Input
Amino acid sequence: MTKLKYVRGIPIPDAPWFIDKNVEDTLDLVPHDGDIIIASYPKTGTTWLQYIALQITSKGELIPNFDECMYKYAPFLEASGTSVLDTMEKPRIYKHHCPYDKVQKNGKAKYVYIYRKPEDTVISYYHFMYELGYDVPAFDEFFEEFLSGDIAYGHYFEHVLSYYEQKEDEGLLLVSYEKLLLNKKEEILRIAKFLGEEYFQNLIADDTLMEKVLERTSFDYMKKNLEVISPNKAENAQKKLNFFRKGVIGDGKKALSADQLERLKILASEKLRGSDLLKEWIQE
Output
C-alpha cells in the first residue's frame, strides 16, 4: 500500500515535501478578493490549467519553469505553504488538491476545477507516483486503492462530486480535461471570460496573442520546455522526471483490463447516480 498520512481527515502522501502545517494552512486559508484558485484531484490536468491561467493573465508573457510555477507564480500550497502568497502580485494564482468541503471560501474569489475520465486519471496517477519514486505497489494493487479511496487525496468520485455539486455557483468554473483537449481554443476563451472580461477581450482582439497562448500551453511545448526535477533529489543525484507523459484521451481504456474497466464503470454509476457526469463519462 502507498504510504499515507492524514491531515484533518485528508490522506496525504507521506513524503518530506508535504509538511502537515502547510496542509493545515491551506485548509485554513481564506482567499482574498480576486484570487484565482485552481483545484483538482491529482493527475487530472492541474499543471496544464496553471499554465493556461498564467498565460491568460500575463497576456502570453509568463511561462516560468516548473519550480518557479509551483513555488512562486502559481504555487502548490500543500508543498509551498501559504506564506508565499504574501508577496504575490494580483491576481494571485495558486492551486491545491483539497476537496471543496475542506477549504475556506470567498465569494469574490475565482475557483477553477478540472476533472478527467477516471480510467485515464488512475493510469496517469500510477505512472506519476512511480516516476516520483514513491514506494508504489504493482498497478493492480494501486487500482484497488484508487477504487477504495485508500490513496492520496481520497476517493476520486467523491472529490469530483464535492465541486461538481456546486456547479451553479457563479464563482466556480468546471473544466473537463477532455473538452479542453478537444476544443482548446473555445475552452481557453471560456476560462478567460470567467477570469475577467479584460482577459477575454485581449484574446479575441489579438490573433497573435491567441496563437501564442495556444502554442505555449500545448502538450508538445510544455513537455519540451518545462523541465521537472524530482523532489527526491539527493546531492549530485538529481533526476529529471517525465512529468508530462502523454496528454491524451483513452489511455486508460487501452491499459486497464476489461474487468477493471467494468468495475470502474459500476462504481462510477453508484457514486455518480443522478449526476450529469455519468453522461460525460459513460457512453451507453
The longest strand covers residues 110-115. The radius of gyration is 18 Å.
